[in-house]
Amino acid sequence: MDTLNEVAEMIQHWTLPKWARTVAEPCNDYDDNKGNLRMLYDHRTYVCRPGTIKKHLELYKAHGMAPQTRNLGQPLMYATTETGNPNAYIHIWVYEDAADRAKRRAAMQADPDWQEYLRISAEAGYLESQLNTLLNPVDFFDK
Fold first, then answer.
1. What is the dihedral of CA 20, 137, 132, 110, to 10 degrees?
2. What's the gap between Cα 72 and its chain centre?
3. CATH class of this structure's domain 39-135
4. CA distance 77 to 91
5. What angle (nearest 5°) sits at the alpha carbon of residue 73, between those of residues 71 and 79?
6. What is the pTM of this model?
7. Helices 65-72 and 98-110, interaxial angle, to 10°?
8. Is the pLDDT of residue 13 over 50?
9. Region(s) of the chain under CATH 3.30.70.100
10. Is pLDDT above 60 for 143?
């Protein structure tokens, strides 16, 4: 692709899930008269025992990623830290609202593959702590 116009043309044809639509796509789930979509962000920070983060992420990739994304969809972000605690990693999930989050998470908890991942992860004992924060975007920033 040689030009920005070619990239823009390609993006126009992408189909995004309802919860990830951009302002350019029509949607009836507006939170206000400014066109802001209602969304709930689930920001999760996990801290591993020192020296185990790579092992834990390998375990997640092998056993947890498939059942989690099958039930929750793709995360907005799944990342290790560049600065701060080197034993921490963060992921952010996007939901339409609290009911959507509850529905998807209940489906994940009922998934036998997810339960197997939780069992293996608990046996490995790599995780030290977890902090979950649910976030609502403010309405005064443009999209």
1. -40
2. 8
3. alpha beta
4. 5
5. 115
6. 0.73
7. 140
8. no
9. 39-135
10. no
* 94 contacts 19 by C-beta, under 8 angstroms: yes
Distant-in-sequence, close-in-space partners of 131: CB < 8 Å, separation ≥ 6: 44, 45
pLDDT (tens digit per residue) in 102-135: 999 999 999 999 999 999 999 999 999 999 999 9
Other beta carbons within 10 Å of 110: 10
pLDDT, one tens digit per residue, over 14-71 is 444 443 433 333 333 444 445 556 699 999 999 999 999 999 999 999 999 999 999 9
C-alpha dihedral sign at 121, 129, 51, 62: positive
| Buried b or exposed e, range 23-39, using 16+ CB within 10 angstroms | eeeeeeeeeeeeebbbb
Instruction: Give the Cα separation of 108 and 91 in Å (integer).
Output: 16
Q: Which of 7, 125, 140, 115 minimizes the C-alpha distance to 56?
A: 125
Conformation bin of residue 88: beta by default, left when phi > 0, alpha when psi is -120 to 50? beta
